[in-house]
Amino acid sequence: MVSVVGPGVSFVGAPKDAPWDVIDGHRWVAHNYSFDGAVMEVLHERGVTKAKPGEFFCTANLSAFMGAPRALGGASQELLGRPVDKDPRAFMKGKTWQEAIALGKESEIKEYALGDATSCLDLYSSFSGRMPEMEKALSTHTVTMGWRGFNVDSDLVDKGLNTLDWVRIKASEKLPWKDDDDHTGDVLKMGGLAKACREAGIEVPSSTSEDDPACQRWEEQYGEEYPWVAAMRDWRKANMLFAKLEILWKRRRPDGTVPYGLKYFGAQTGRWSGDSKFNVQNLPKGDMFGVDLRACIVPRAGKKFIISDLAQIEPRVLAWLCGDEVLLDAVRKGYGIYEAFAVSSGMWKGAKGTLKKTDPAIYALSKAQVLGLGYGCGAKKFVLVSKLMAGLDINETRSKQIVDTYRRKNTKVVALWNQLERGFKSSQREDYMVELPSGRQQKYFGITTQKGATGKPDWRASVTLGGPKFPFWGGKLTENLVQAAARDVFGEAILRLEKAGLPVVAHIHDEVILEVDKDVSCADVDQLMAVTPEWLHGCPIAAESHEAECYKK
């Protein structure tokens, strides 16, 4: 079924009967155009229609930009004040159109479909004018980039699947509760795991999630003494990687490329997020059981990858936002960001490019502070952050000294935290809008306060209209502001690269994967990436690029 509404058009019915000739070449608006556009490709392949849009517009992306729920029902409710009854959609799940007719639901389903199209058009008519042209371009680019997809090494994918399948088989054979031959079944079922733990006299993990730190600690604690704990870990890791490779295998097109999904404005800062069960923003790094997922993503024939990222974009933007000219001037003179921080903090004086070699301890301490303290990190958390970010082993007493010194010397950063926090709190029972350097806004809806766990007031807001409320404070608000501004710098770079004819295969946070002709150089890419926008005048933007035969950091 297809439903179409517009000037002089109101249709709902079979695709073969749709008024394609009337809408051919016009602007097409759809909610989640990534899906609708993919459906149109199938209709083209099946010869149902040759109609194409002159341009397209995605109202799901518009809704996300406006701070509303991405789903049409929520967007219609919050932006149009019009609820959408989703019962017909729920009814149709798992049913064919013929079943709907037999059950007397034909008129109801058609009315529902036509209502969806009407809501979509009303969202566009009412709110598209509020979306800047750059954001419209990024929305469109996100969809087309996903359709364009990336090339995969089919032999590596097949080999990886075979390897991981064998790892799963061997691992499942070591699990005490595994009493059948199905190594792909519910190996991690909590019932069998809990029983094995009780029999072994060890604690039962609260979950078996790959990302759960408690489960990771549990595995480290008992993995050596109980082989089946290590086997469970191996099965889980192998199964996770197998599932991702299987998606590549299933989605391969005849030309060897794989389309993927990416959510425009997937985070409140405007950053993108993963979609469609294959999150290009968070692919496993390196070799696992002899399988490297990223190595399976390769350039198309006759092309090469250039991978480029904005160098230390967040600390540069933070320094610009709070007016730290001493640090910025050191960066402009060629000091790396960690050296520049050491210079501006009075920790070190030396020739640029020499700190890491001449005083690695100061370099590590500077790195930890740049990456860990700009957003209000406390002493207890900094112990972990400094270990993770810079490999430092410090106790909480030393951590407190470092944190206190940072805040005493970096008064402009602290002032920015306090300024944002004051603005947030003064907006109680209202919305708080932070204008970004680019001109767009960071939105916080319905500021409220309640007693927190420590007894102090806990200030909260929603980042989506009608959504749950989360706690915010000066450091967190600053982090959002910095990341949002850095995202806008990055967004302009993406569009600049595409305009220059350098296709972006994928992008991850502040990094782009470009698929380019052999004669394109890293210097060419750096020149396009390292551009300071007019609205960020004075902030030194830099890029680091390298060529690669596959996707790798």
Mind explaining what this structure looks like?
The chain contains 22 helices and 17 strands. The chain is globular. Helix 13 crosses helix 20 (411-425) and helix 17 packs across helix 18 (379-390). Helix content is 48%, strand content 15%. The protein is α+β, with helices and mostly antiparallel strands and 553 residues long. It folds into four domains: 2-131, no CATH class; 151-258, no CATH class; 298-312 and 483-548, Alpha-Beta Plaits, CATH 3.30.70; 315-465, no CATH class.
Residue-averaged pLDDT, rounded?
A: 93
Quick one: biggest sheet? 4 strands, antiparallel
- Please give the order of strands in the largest beta sheet: 15-16-10-17
Structural class by SSE content? alpha+beta
Uncertain regions spanning at least 5 consecutive residues? none
- Count the E strands: 17
Question: How far apart are the first and last residues' alpha carbons, in Å?
Answer: 44 Å
Shape: globular
| Rg over C-alpha atoms, rounded to the nearest angstrom | 27 Å
Helicity level, as a percent range?
Answer: 40-55%
| Domain tally | 4
The number of helical elements comes to 22
Residues in β-strands, percent: 5-15%
Output the keywords:
alpha+beta, Alpha-Beta Plaits, four-stranded antiparallel sheet, 17 strands, globular
Summarize this structure briefly.
With 553 residues, the protein is α+β, with helices and mostly antiparallel strands. The chain has 22 helices and 17 strands.
Task: Outline the secondary-structure elements.
Layout: E1 2-6, E2 9-13, H1 20-23, E3 27-30, H2 33-45, E4 55-58, H3 59-65, H4 72-80, H5 87-92, H6 97-102, H7 106-127, H8 133-148, E5 150-152, H9 154-172, H10 190-200, H11 213-222, H12 227-251, E6 257-258, E7 261-263, E8 273-275, E9 297-298, E10 303-310, H13 313-322, H14 325-332, H15 337-344, H16 355-358, H17 360-372, H18 379-390, H19 396-409, H20 411-425, E11 432-435, E12 441-451, E13 457-462, E14 469-471, H21 474-499, E15 504-508, E16 511-517, H22 522-529, E17 543-548
Parallel strand pairs: 3-4
Antiparallel strand pairs: 1-2, 5-6, 5-9, 7-8, 10-16, 10-17, 11-12, 12-13, 13-14, 15-16
Helix pairs in contact: 4-7, 8-21, 9-12, 13-20, 13-21, 14-15, 15-17, 17-18, 18-19, 20-21
